[in-house]
Amino acid sequence: xxxxxNVQIKIPDEYVLIETNRLKELEENIEDPIWDMKxxxxxxxxASDTTIQDRLLYNPKFRKELKNKGIVHYPDDEFRRWRVNAxxxxxxxxxxxxxxxxxx
Length: 104
Description:
It comes from Staphylococcus auricularis. The chain is mostly helical and 104 residues long. 48% of the residues lie in helices and 7% in strands.
């Protein structure tokens, strides 16, 4: 015969209960607040630079917002590398997931 014990535990206001995966994700963003193209490929699980550029970075639907909100630094004559604000991009990816990852 199995028994069930129901327990209530009060969590103080200064603590928050979150999933382990979410905690790890937050810790990674704190440790590495700026991504390069390799990091962006890893986070989006896209295989190539071209795919990321076509679907996201150079997509007319997203490019202006990514640049104007400081989410992405596009390579230029002074700094020829991609730089991505990890926190802002994470939020952007969550908000635009369907549009980015669904083929039209």
